[in-house]
Write a structure and sequence with these properties.
The structure holds 2 protein chains of 2 kinds. Chain A is of the alpha+beta class. The radius of gyration of chain A is 80 Å and the shape is rod-shaped. Mean pLDDT of chain A is 82; it is low at 792-798, 842-852 and 981-991. Chain B is mainly α. Chain B is built from 2 helices and no strands. Chain B has helices spanning 2-40, 46-82. In chain B, helix 1 runs antiparallel to helix 2 (46-82). The chains are: A alpha+beta, B mainly alpha. At the A-B interface, helix 19, helix 20 and helix 25 of A face helix 1 and helix 2 of B.
């Protein structure tokens, strides 16, 4: 635009100058013409005058000659005659541009010619004829008239020429004026134009200089840029010869800018295909030929000057000149060898990442900004229980636990707003199967180059087990804390240097300290110790010892609240980590002030326990002895039977004796079991409404043989109506029987025993009084202790296990009653009284009806099952002697086979047997058609509620402890319907 | 405290022994009891009586005596170990 202005300005200036020059030329030409015309006019006038003068000179000569005849006078004439013609020619020439005057010239020429002829004639007359003839001719005035005409014509022409001259002078002057004016104007205009052009050019030059400066800057910038950019740049001319390399190009190719200048690009920058090793089409040449940008393939390698091959990424573009023609090419390239290595590494890395993603031990997901799943790995599928297809497109919120929804949304919101780049939260998801899974979720937000949220990377770790373990641990810790706080021991956890890390409630309560007051404080500076320097120092020493690995324990007196003191058993135990380093000291204190006070008593107790041990040993010895005692007569009885030769009286007496001894053995064994139950607290009562007389009668019946054996006299006194009790009749009769047996044993033979019963308000009192050995006062409590047997001098005192009264007291107390003894002293007899609650007298009591069986005389089919051959044999014999048919089996499996064969009415079966035990055999029998209604009796040495319960659960109908009472055996057999098996179908008949 | 604990342990030991003994003794007593019961009905059958008395002796009394001997032996040993010195 500016250039155009300059051109326009220059054109205008040129026009102005041209106009000015044209005007000047024209004006100058006019002036010259006018000047020439003036000159011609003046010349014409001069010529006319000269002509006239010449004619005059010729006439003058003529006249002189005429007058004188002297030829001398003819010289002017002759000279004029010779010039007149020339003068006329000159006039003619001079008047050529003035036709109006030139038209007069022929007349003049004629006049002159006539004049000349006149003169010539006169002269000739004069010469030939002398003066006279010549004078006469002269006197005719012809000559004068001609002369006058010539003079007039010339004067007229001069006048005309003078007028013309004046006019031409005026025109010349005008032209001069115009030329001056136009010169000034054109000059001024030219000056203005030149000034304007100068300004334009100056401005243009300034701008050009600025542009050049800027161009130089840009050129410098370009040069610097080319030098500094990471890509190599090579420029060539249109024939592919190097015109320049930047530093990077120099470095990559190994060619310097100077040495490569003018070289072929194929020489400086030879390219090959990596795979084929063939020379590649050169991008520069291709670009120049095609006038288009050319890029190389990924496979292209540059062979550098040193021969090394480098992967390059090239782009060649033509350089287009101002004429839109390609003037060269610029090749940009970069060494991609490292990039390819990096890409290879990156590819490997990506492969590893992909593998890591897919095989990660944690769940990984990519999710869109609205948390819609884009990509999930296998582990996440396993954690959530969904397949990959089921998860893709699903939002996390769909499976988030409602209680965690707000937390999750808040987390996402903060990340989307840029408050956090990543977050880690703990939340719950619902698995596909509905189970809740706890996870640690780490979320990172990836943003695109415009910093817009692109996608979330979510790492999910299943911590359900950890949470459960943590909860368990927390519960455990809380439990431990509760335990610590509720333990009576004072517990402090210390650093190895002795600073308090933790302290339990019991310890704080010692001096009403606060937890925060103690934490971090030196243990030996607590108020417990610092009341006494010696105590504090002793503790410091103990802490040092413990910190070196020693367990320190000693008793210490410490100060507690209100300046009281107490004695504790202090233990400082070093706690080690897995490396064996001591990480903590555990200081435990137990208040032993009471213990100290009781130590003396404990020593007494120890002595007593020693005595108890002695009693136990004595008991065991007594047990053996007591059980041997009945065995001896039984053994003797057997010998008597062998020698009695079947004497009925002897046999019956002997058998009764053996039976009594056996009963004694059974009682002893039962008592032993009760001892065991009492000491274990497992003796249970089966209470029922029962009449006191029934209990007393049973006790008397049980003890009568013993009483009779000592020859004692038993009297019974029951006052008032019969009394109803809520009691275990068996156990209560056992109590009374024990009292009667005890009285019998501790009364000399032939003594008196008195049994009495009386209602005492809501209680009933039963007393057994004897006139026996009596009791020393100090023995009144001891006799109720286990094995607390009174020593006597005679043999009677050694009988029994010393557990009867212990049983009596325990059973009485379990009935809600008491037992007491009074005695006036040794040999003054004793009176034992039990007092137990009685039922309301108005209560209507009905005795349990006695169960009636079927005809006992009808033989039953009985199966005896026991692994002991002796038991099988004796049981079989007794039952056979009662008239029944007996078969036997040695274990449960054989019992089932035998039962299937014989279809027994009742089975007596032991529990503990080889192969198949009694429990299993009973269960299997119940599954058989013949066994569903079969009566099965468990006959075992094991008693107790637990055994009875299991016996019942196994399908037994009854549980009888060995040995069975004869009546029990008979009644059980009698209770079953005889021949109850259908022979046809094997099922039992309806009773 | 330790003394009491020891005492409890010993009590439990005694109870356990007693329980086992009772169960075992009842089997022996079952033989004796059943044998004696059968004698009542075996009058006139001296061979049978002879047989049953042998059974009572060998199947009931002897094993019971052996158990008692064992208890006695244990009691004697414990008594010796508990005695001072």
């Amino acid at each position: 635009m500016k250039y155009k202005s300059i051109v326009i300005g220059a054109l205008l200036a040129a026009i102005f100058l041209s106009v000015s020059m044209t005007l000047n030329y024209r004006n100058t030409t006019k002036i010259r013409e006018y000047n020439l015309a003036v000159d011609r006019a003046e010349s014409a006038i001069q010529s006319l005058r000269s002509l006239l003068s010449t004619v005059n000179d010729a006439e003058t000569g003529q006249r002189g000659y005429l007058l004188t005849g002297d030829e001398e006078y003819l010289k002017p004439y002759q000279e004029s005659i010779s010039t007149i013609t020339q003068a006329l020619s000159e006039v003619e020439v001079q008047l050529a541009d003035t036709p109006t005057i030139a038209r007069e010239l022929p007349d003049l020429r004629n006049l002159v010619s006539r004049k000349l002829a006149e003169m010539k004639e006169t002269i000739a007359l004069r010469r030939e004829r002398g003066y006279q003839p010549a004078a006469r001719l002269f006197d005719t005035d012809q000559g004068r008239v001609l002369m006058d005409s010539i003079r007039s014509s010339i004067t007229n022409m001069v006048e005309m020429e003078r007028q013309l001259l004046t006019s031409r002078l005026k025109s010349s002057n005008d032209a001069y004026q115009i030329a001056i004016a136009s010169g000034l104007i054109s000059g001024f205009s030219a000056l203005v134009s030149i000034a304007a052009l100068f300004l334009l050019v100056r401005r243009h030059v300034d701008e050009r200089e600025k542009a050049n400066g800027k161009m130089r800057e840009q050129s410098e910038l370009l040069r610097t840029t080319l030098a500094s950019i990471g890509d190599g740049v090579i420029t060539t001319d249109r024939s592919g010869h190097i015109t320049g390399l930047n530093e990077v190009a120099e470095e990559i190719t190994g060619w310097s800018n100077e040495e490569s200048y003018g070289c072929s690009v194929k020489k400086v920058f030879p390219v090959y295909y990596h795979e084929s090793k063939q020379e590649a089409s050169h991008p520069v040449l291709t670009s120049i030929h095609s006038d288009d940008t050319v890029r190389t393939t990924h496979d292209t390698q540059l062979k550098a000057k040193d021969g090394s091959l480098l992967f390059v990424d090239c782009s060649a573009s033509p350089i287009v000149g101002n004429d839109e023609k390609t003037v060269g090419c610029v090749l940009t390239f970069k060494d991609t060898s490292q990039q390819r290595k990096r890409e290879a590494i990156l590819q490997k890395s990506e492969s590893r990442l992909r593998a890591a993603f897919e095989n990660a031990a944690v769940g990984i997901a990519h999710a869109s900004p609205d948390e819609r799943l884009i990509r999930v790995n296998q582990r996440l599928c396993e954690i959530l229980g969904y397949s990959e297809d089921e998860l893709i497109g699903r939002q996390f919120s769909e499976i988030t636990h409602p209680d965690d929804m707000a937390l999750a949304k808040d987390c996402l919101s903060k990340m989307l707003t840029g408050e956090y780049r990543s977050q880690k939260i703990q939340k719950r998801y619902f698995r596909k199967d509905g189970e809740i899974v706890w996870v640690n979720k780490t979320i990172s937000l990836v943003r695109d180059p415009e910093n817009r949220p692109d996608y979330f990377i979510t790492v999910i770790e299943d911590i359900t087990d950890r949470i459960a373990a943590q909860e368990a641990l927390e519960e455990s810790e809380a439990h431990l804390r509760r335990v610590l706080d509720n333990t009576l021991a004072y517990v402090c956890v210390l650093t190895p240097e002795g600073s308090v890390l933790e302290i339990n409630r019991s310890a704080l309560d010692l001096d009403d300290s606060q937890h925060s007051d103690c934490i971090g404080k030196a243990f030996n500076e607590l108020s417990w110790w610092n009341y006494d320097t010696e105590v504090s120092n002793r503790l410091s020493d103990a802490l040092k010892k413990s910190a070196s690995g020693e367990i320190v324990r000693y008793d210490e007196k410490i100060r507690i609240h209100e300046n009281d003191t107490t004695i504790i058993d202090l233990i400082i135990n070093p706690a080690r980590n897995e490396s064996g380093e001591i990480t903590h000291l555990i200081a435990t204190g137990i208040d032993i002030s009471d213990r100290k006070m009781l130590e003396e008593e404990l020593r007494v107790v120890a002595a007593e326990l020693s005595q108890a041990n002695k009693k136990k040993d004595e008991f065991l010895a007594t047990l053996a002895h007591e059980l041997r005692n009945p065995m001896a007569p039984i053994r003797t009885g057997l010998e008597i039977l062998r020698l009695s030769h079947d004497d009925p009286v002897t046999m019956e007496q002997t058998r009764e004796m053996m039976e009594r001894q056996t009963d004694q053995l059974v009682r002893l064994v039962d008592d032993l079991l009760d001892v065991s139950r009492i000491t274990r607290g497992k003796l249970e009562l089966r209470k029922e409404d029962v009449l006191l007389t029934e209990i007393l009668n049973r006790a008397i019946e049980s003890s009568k043989p013993v009483i009779d054996s000592f020859g004692h006299k038993l009297t019974v006194d029951i006052e008032g109506p019969d009394i109803s009790l809520s009691a275990d009749s068996h156990r209560l009769s056992q109590v009374i029987s024990n009292l009667l047996n005890n009285a019998a044993k501790y009364t000399h033979d032939g003594g008196k025993i008195h049994l009495s019963a009386i209602r005492d308000g809501d209680f009933v009192s039963v007393s057994v009084e004897d006139n026996g050995v009596g009791l020393a006062p100090e023995m009144r409590e001891l006799i109720f202790e286990m094995f607390g047997q009174v020593k006597k001098e005679d043999d009677l005192s050694t009988s029994g296990l010393g557990i009867g009264l212990t049983l009596a007291r325990s059973l009485t107390e379990q009935h809600g009653g008491t037992i007491s003894v009074v005695s006036d002293g040794p040999d003054k007899g004793s009176k034992f009284t039990i007092k137990i609650p009685a039922n309301n007298p108005a209560m209507n009591y009905e005795s349990n009806p006695v169960a009636t069986g079927f005809d006992p005389k009808i033989p039953r089919q009985v199966l005896v099952v026991d692994d002991s051959p002796s038991i099988r044999k004796t049981m079989s014999l007794v039952i056979k002697l009662q008239g029944h048919e007996v078969s036997t089996a040695c274990d449960g499996r054989e019992a089932i086979e035998r039962a299937a064969e014989t279809k027994p009415d009742i089975i007596f079966m032991d529990i503990g047997m080889p192969r198949t035990n009694g429990y299993e055999a009973a269960k299997l029998m119940r599954k058989e058609p013949w066994g569903k209604d079969l009566t099965i009796v468990a006959l075992t040495g094991w008693g107790g509620e637990d055994v009875s319960q299991r016996v019942e659960e196994s399908g037994f109908n009854h549980h009888v402890v060995k040995p069975p009472e004869p009546e029990v055996l008979k009644s059980l057999i009698a209770s079953v319907r005889p021949n109850s098996i259908s022979s046809e179908d094997g099922t039992r008949k309806e009773s | 405290m330790g003394l009491e604990k020891n005492h409890n342990v010993e009590k439990q030991s005694v109870q356990s022994k007693l329980g086992a003994f009772v169960h075992s003794a009842r089997n022996d007593l079952n033989v004796i009891s059943m044998g004696i019961q059968s004698i009542e009905d075996l009058a006139g059958h001296p061979d049978k009586i002879q047989e049953i008395t042998e059974l009572i002796r060998n199947g009931g009394l002897r094993p019971l005596r052996e158990k008692l001997d064992l208890i006695q032996k244990n009691a004697d040993e414990e008594s010796e170990s508990n005695s001072p010195g």
